[in-house]
Design a protein that fits this description.
elongated
Length: about 150
Amino acid sequence: MISGTFYALLAGFLGAAASLSAKLSLGADYLRDMCESGFSGWTPTHSPSATCDWLHLPLRLLCGGLLFTCNAVMWTFFSKALRHCSSSARATVTTTASNFIFSAILGRVIFGEAHAALWWMGISLTLCGLLVLHGSLPQTFPQEDGTKDK
């Protein structure tokens, strides 16, 4: 059986993938630049910009479809995380923290983005709160035997 924490981590990753898809489909000319750099080694006789002038449009549409798909699957896994975790706060904070971390990793790998020290301090505080949430035991209340509302 898969734990709720795993579902929450997966939901955070899919949320980061959805935001990456949105940035690629609606952003400036990321796809065109990636296309030109990818085709520059393939076609030495033809200009890669001529091919990428029409190819970036289907790639943008593909990224737009990926955006909606990642969001739909992300909500499915988040719902499973809510069902399997002991508290909704644990599932929510885990999903949010993993989304931040995966967004930072994808931003660094794909776009070469760097984050300021204040951002790293904020994510560190979020992770500390996550550790407190996961380290605490769920509180159980004693039930009285034989007393049920009718």
